[in-house]
Design brief:
There is one protein chain. The chain is built from 4 helices and 5 strands. Helices cover 39% and strands 19% of the residues. The chain has 149 residues and is an alpha/beta fold.
Length: 149
C-alpha cells in the first residue's frame, strides 16, 4: 500500500506556504508541523509584513502548533521546512523538543549547522526533501530582488 502522507507530501504543503510568502514579497520559506499524519500548524515568513525579525516561518509554526495542542512541547510532532532553520529557529525547536525536523534546502550561510547550533538530542533530522524545488524558489526570489535594484 502506498503511503500518500510521506515526507514529500508534507514538504509540498510547506512549499505551498513558501509560495504564499513569495507572493507577499517575503523571503519564501514555508513550514508545516504534523502530528499523526495531520497538519496541525502551517506558516510562512512574515518578517516584512509584521516588521518583526523573529517572524520566521518556523517561529510562527511553533507558536501555532503549541496553541493547537495546548502545550509548549512538540513531542511526537514533525516540522517540515523548506529552508534549513537559522540558529534562532533552531533554538526554539530545541526548546520545543520537536521529535523530527525535515529540511528542504540547506543554508550554507545562515543555517543552524554552519552556526554550530544544536537541536534537542532526541530530534531526528532528515535533509534534502524536495531540496531542488526549495532552492529554486529562494534563488528566484533573490534574483528578482537584484533585478529591482
Amino acid at each position: 500500500m502506498i503511503n500518500l502522507y510521506d515526507d514529500n507530501y508534507f514538504m509540498r504543503r510547506a512549499l505551498d506556504e513558501a509560495k504564499i510568502a513569495f507572493q507577499k514579497d517575503e523571503v519564501p520559506v514555508g513550514a508545516v508541523i504534523v502530528s499523526n499524519n495531520q497538519i496541525i500548524a502551517r506558516a510562512h515568513n512574515l518578517t516584512e509584513t509584521l516588521n518583526d525579525v523573529t517572524a520566521h516561518a518556523e517561529m510562527q509554526c511553533i507558536t501555532s502548533a503549541a496553541n493547537y495542542i495546548g502545550g509548549k512541547y512538540l513531542k511526537n510532532c514533525t516540522m517540515y521546512v523548506t529552508l534549513e532553520p537559522c540558529q534562532m529557529c533552531a533554538g526554539a525547536l530545541y526548546w520545543s523538543q520537536i521529535s523530527k525536523l525535515v529540511i528542504g534546502a540547506s543554508d550554507a550561510h545562515r543555517g543552524f549547522r554552519v552556526m554550530n547550533t544544536k537541536l534537542h538530542p532526541k530530534t531526528k533530522v532528515i535533509d534534502g526533501i524536495m531540496a531542488k524545488q526549495s532552492k529554486i524558489l529562494i534563488d528566484d526570489f533573490f534574483k528578482k530582488k537584484r533585478e529591482i535594484k
